[in-house]
Design goal:
Layout (H helix, E strand, L loop, with lengths): L2 E7 L7 H11 L4 E7 L5 H8 L6 E4 L13 E2 L1 H6 L4 E5 L2 E5 L2 H12 L10 E4 L3 H12 L5 E4 L3 H10 L4 E4 L4 H4 L5 E4 L3 E4 L16 E4 L8 H8 L3 E3 L2 H16 L7 H11 L2
Helix pairs in contact: 4-5, 4-9
Bound molecules: NADP nicotinamide-adenine-dinucleotide phosphate.
Length: 276
């Protein structure tokens, strides 16, 4: 019998997940399918009833459902609870279990693109304090990175987030970047600045140490203005597409029983879809 998985969102047509999982299904010759399903918020409870029938072995959850599915899952692991969002569902014995693989995707991407990046790393700057920032903070803390300086346009949002997280996280505004930068060997942009080529004003990357790594989780465009600026100054950079690919690995392994590889061919295939 065909093993089925899905991604739900609203809208969902833009999702690259069917391409990623479809490529791995074909690569491993599996009797499996992965489909994008548009589920409006009001239809979410009925979709969970359908899940409990065992039609699917699991799937991904994207905007706007990552928080709403919490209340519908039969169990959610502590990690997803601390991140405050579920992006992966696994169905077993008529029960729906929720987890979050974004933090693994972030770490997997950096481990592959910049091996040893976290060794001896102390101060890191995180730009943005939205939904994605939580997963990044959990990921950095899992590698004992700190102190972390959280810079956000709306300071109160960052203060609220820092208060909800454990560990040494200090909060400042984006205008404070140049003052904090000399101590930071890692800069992570988790804000939506960079999408469609938008840029930060007033961040002087020349203030960073010369061995600093700059990474952006925004992947459309692949080279954001922040990464272009960092590259032109000779800093190490890692783009956000790898995070999208690596976060897909644990879900695929759980649903289909095979652990797929993130390779250059997959990266190139998905990258090609970002150009139009
Ligand atoms: P979100 O919850 O809407 O948060 C947006 C963040 O961006 C907030 O901190 C917001 O600051 C900031 N921001 C928005 N417009 C700004 C502006 N004009 N100037 C300064 N700051 C601004 O979004 P999210 O879910 O965290 O996602 C953020 C980005 O990460 C998106 O581009 C998303 O595609 C990307 N992402 C990538 C991956 C991946 O796998 N690579 C995974 C998840 C997300 P305020 O608090 O001031 O509003």
């Amino acid at each position: 019998m065909t093993t089925k998985a899905f991604v739900i969102g609203h809208p969902i047509a833009h999702s690259r997940s069917p391409l990623i999982h479809g490529t791995w299904i074909a690569q491993h010759g599996l009797d499996a399918s992965y489909e994008a399903i548009d589920v409006a918020p009001a239809a979410l409870p009925a979709f969970f009833d359908r899940l409990r029938t065992g039609e699917f072995s699991g799937g991904n959850v994207t905007i706007p459902h990552k928080e709403a599915v919490f209340a519908l899952c039969d169990s959610v692991d502590p990690l997803a609870t601390s991140i405050g969002a579920v992006n992966t569902l696994v169905v077993q014995g008529g029960q729906v279990h929720g987890t979050n693989t974004d933090y693994l995707g972030f770490l997997g991407n950096l481990d592959a693109a910049a091996p040893g990046w976290s060794t001896g790393l102390e101060t890191a700057i995180v730009l943005g304090a939205g939904g994605a920032a939580r997963a990044i903070l959990v990921a950095l803390q899992s590698r004992n990175i700190g102190p972390i300086v959280l810079l956000n346009r709306t300071r109160e949002t960052a203060e609220k987030l820092a208060a909800e997280m454990a560990g040494p996280i200090s909060v400042a505004s984006l205008d404070d970047f140049n003052a904090v930068a000399p101590l930071a060997r890692l800069v992570v942009n988790t804000s939506s600045i960079g999408m469609h080529g938008t840029r930060f004003e007033g961040l002087d990357l020349a203030c960073l140490p010369p061995d600093a790594l700059v990474t952006d989780i925004v992947y459309a465009p692949l080279e954001t203005p922040l990464l272009a600026d960092a590259k032109s100054r000779g800093l190490k950079t890692v783009d956000g597409l790898g995070m999208l690919l690596h976060q897909a690995v644990p879900g695929f392994a759980a649903w289909f029983g095979v652990r797929p590889e993130v390779d250059q061919a997959l990266y190139a295939k998905v990258e090609a879809t970002l150009r139009h």
